[in-house]
Structure formats: C-alpha cells, structure tokens
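# nightly structure sweep
# worker-07 picked up a monomer target from the shared queue
# config: single-sequence mode, recycle default, output format = structure tokens
# input follows
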Amino acid sequence: MKIIKPSARIVSSVDGDEILKRIEEYGRVCYKSEDRITEDSAKRFVENLIKRGHESVLEHISVTVKFVCDRGVSHEIVRHRLASYSQESTRFCNYSQDKFDGELTFILPPWIPESEAQLILRGELPLCKYQHAIAPNSFELHDQLIDKLPTSYGWYVAMLCTEAAYKLSIADAGWTPEQARAVLPNSLKTELIMTANLREWRHFFKLRTSNAAHPQMRELTVPLLGEFKEKIPVVFDDIKVEE
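# output follows
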C-alpha cells in the first residue's frame, strides 16, 4: 500500500505574454480596432474585456492540467462540463500487477494531523502498538482503547482492508479488475487530465477555491490558481482566495 499527497500542475506549454496578445488579436475583431494594437496594449485590453464581462474571447485559449487526487475529488472535477478529460481507469488498471508494484495507492486526507501524516507517508504508523486493540479476525476496536488510538487509525486500517479485499478478489475469486473495483474507496489515487478554455478555468477557480469547496479540492486548487496567476498575467488576477 502506498500513501501519497495530491498534486495539480499545468502540463501544457504556456506563454502568458503570447496568450494576452492572442486574446487581444481575437477580441479586437469584435470592435474592428486592430489598428490600435501596440507592443504593450494587450494587458490593458484584456483587463477591460474582463471588467466588461466580455469573457467569450477567453474561450479561444485552452490550458491542460494534470491532477493527482482521490476519486471523490475527481468526481467533482468532471462535473465541469465545458472541458475535456482523460482519467486513469479502474476498469482496465489491474493494481495487483507489477507495473503498479502490486499495490494500491491512496491519497492522504489533509485533515489528518501532520505528526501522524508524516508517520503514514513514511510507513511508520505504529500499528503494532495497537494490535491488541483489534479483535481476532476482525477490525472491531475495544471501546476502552479507542481513545488511545491515533485519530487516523480507522482510515489507515480501512485502506489496508481495502487493498487486501481487492487483491483477494482478483487472486482467489478470479474477479476481473472491473469487478474488483467495487471495493475501491474514494481515497483511491487517480490521475486526471483536464483541458479547458480560460473562461471555464475562471469559473472553475471561482467555485473550487471558495470556502464552500471541499477541503481536499481546495488543497489542489488554491496552489493551482497561484500557478495560473504566475504563468498567465491579468486573466486570473481578480479571483481572490478566501482565507
């Protein structure tokens, strides 16, 4: 079993200055003001487009991002319909094979305390210390010992059980990967490629960086918005992240 943290990054080639010039070139067709294009006019033109709400021009430029996240978060991401997606398939990926090192990979939830998170990431959560708290052949905890367990213990054991059930389903029951995936949880790692135009990315970030978004979504989108702002001037500057 592997435990990793999520990530998101722009994978397409992005030249922010060139993007602004292209947006200006396309947008000025609407006003037939191409004669007003200068070496440094793009920034102000794009700022004015966004202020006026003339965002349809932004749809001419697309950016591709690779997400490494859990399945629950991916289900929310693909709800954005004005985008193209390619996602790791649990139907066709057999995680018991050598190419996956014969194990499942799970995403560490951000609400697990950092001290325990580091133990989990290093594979050092002291399970053996608590083995006496588990009844034989089950994972039922004795009530008097629950308070002594790490807060992440239940999640960690659930992932261990999931991996065991998945492998047994394939190796012993002869299930195919698309059948065995019935036991896989939201915490399973998935890789997702998303391509969307700049207008849709603006909509995406307005929804997915707000305080109302799921904590695991914000864990991805807040840093990703920072990368968009760094690489593409102006277009995302008005989107503020709530504390």
